[in-house]
Amino acid sequence: MTRHTFSKFSLLFRMSTFKVDPDISQAKTLSTEFYLSPEILDKSREKIFANTWQFIGDSDMVKDKGWVTPVNLLEHYIDEPLLLTKDDNDKLHCLSNVCTHRGNLLVEKPCKLNDIRCRYHGRRFGLDGQFRSMPEFKEVKNFPSDADNLVNLPIHQWGKWLFTSLSPGFEANEIFGDMSRRLSWLPLNEFNFRPDLSRDYLIDANWALYCENYLEGFHIPFVHAGLNAVIDYGNYTTELYRYSSLQLGLAKDDDDFIFELPSSSPDAGKRVAGYYFWVFPNLMFNFYPWGASINVVKPLSPARTKVSFLSYVWDESKLRQGAGANLHQVEMEDEDIVQNVQRGIRSRFYQHGRYSVKRETGTHHFHQLLAEFINK
Ligand code: FES
Ligand SMILES: [Fe+2]
């Protein structure tokens, strides 16, 4: 960090309560301290990320009875070792992957098991996380107790997709309910993960800058010429929910790459090119006629972020068409502008901006949630 940035930053740090006026016409954007301070990123780990719902994979990762798959939740940030399992009763579990004896990591790669056996001193657990046996422990008093079982975390399932929370501050339905109702006609169980169409991007910017850019379509005509050619910018809308939002991209009249919506859809009759759902704090669910692109935004440091793009294909024949045709090109354009903003907000002359009342409601909503959670 340069001396220049440090002096701005240390001055700001003394005054750090984040405020975002609920009236967007009066509001100023979030203080730049949020994106620059290592302390705020540390604080966000517990106050924002541990209390919300995180994506942990899909049910195909533990398709049959006996399958177990380790998942490191937000590697290099939360870094919590978890284990997805499917037990003998076909029930899914999300367990701590840490042995309750001396803390060894239990399962290192996906495999099929009858029970989980720690390779350090042989403690065994059922696939539901219950303690089963331990050699050389006959003399130990008050053993086993509940503390010897593996911690069991809640699972929320939407289609094949699985989510958990380390310490849920609210019910999963409060964030996923609006999305799943809106798209209840989509056969999500027919969506298949495609590793060949999935990849990670590394970005030199704060995770929240990446999200807030996603949350407004205002920049589409300026930054995304290709996307702007197929999206009807005049009719681009943002709908806000308590912990999520939806941007609805309609196709231009001469573009035919749209959803065939059934009459049961609340959007029947509209020419929808893409549904862009965002879930607080860091998940994006982009639905196109070919399927879904899930983006998981993973903080690494105040100015470094990994974004995993996971593609789930439903109708292969519609790939490479319409709003979801060239996600890589759109991503390059977003990365370029967001990295520029990260450099800009370090300036001693910039601390806040203002919002467009018509075009930046999604970003304003996000900033309010960040302020609400970080000030808790
Ligand atoms: S650490 Fe697992 S049995 Fe000892
Ligand atoms: Fe963009």
Describe the structure.
The chain is α+β, with helices and mostly antiparallel strands. The chain contains 9 helices and 19 strands. The chain has helices at 3-13, 33-36, 38-49, 173-182, 207-214, 220-223, 225-228, 327-344, 361-374, and strands spanning 54-58, 67-73, 80-86, 92-96, 111-112, 116-117, 124-125, 131-133, 152-153, 156-158, 161-164, 192-193, 199-203, 237-240, 244-250, 272-279, 283-288, 291-301, 304-313. Strands 12, 13, 14, 15, 16, 17, 18 and 19 form an 8-stranded antiparallel sheet that branches. A hairpin with a 6-residue loop joins strand 2 and strand 3. The longest helix has 18 residues, at 327-344. It is globular, with a radius of gyration of 23 Å. The chain starts with a helix and ends with a helix. Mean pLDDT is 94; it is low at 1-7 and 11-15. Bound molecules: FE2/S2 (inorganic) cluster and fe (ii) ion. Fe (ii) ion (FE2) is lined by residues 213, 219, 223-224, 334.
Protein topology:
Elements: H1 3-13, H2 33-36, H3 38-49, E1 54-58, E2 67-73, E3 80-86, E4 92-96, E5 111-112, E6 116-117, E7 124-125, E8 131-133, E9 152-153, E10 156-158, E11 161-164, H4 173-182, E12 192-193, E13 199-203, H5 207-214, H6 220-223, H7 225-228, E14 237-240, E15 244-250, E16 272-279, E17 283-288, E18 291-301, E19 304-313, H8 327-344, H9 361-374
Antiparallel strand pairs: 1-11, 2-3, 2-5, 3-4, 4-9, 6-7, 7-8, 10-11, 12-19, 13-19, 14-15, 15-16, 16-17, 17-18, 18-19
Helix pairs in contact: 5-8, 5-9
Bound molecules: FE2/S2 (inorganic) cluster (FES) and fe (ii) ion (FE2).
FE2/S2 (inorganic) cluster binds near residues 99, 121, 122 and 123.
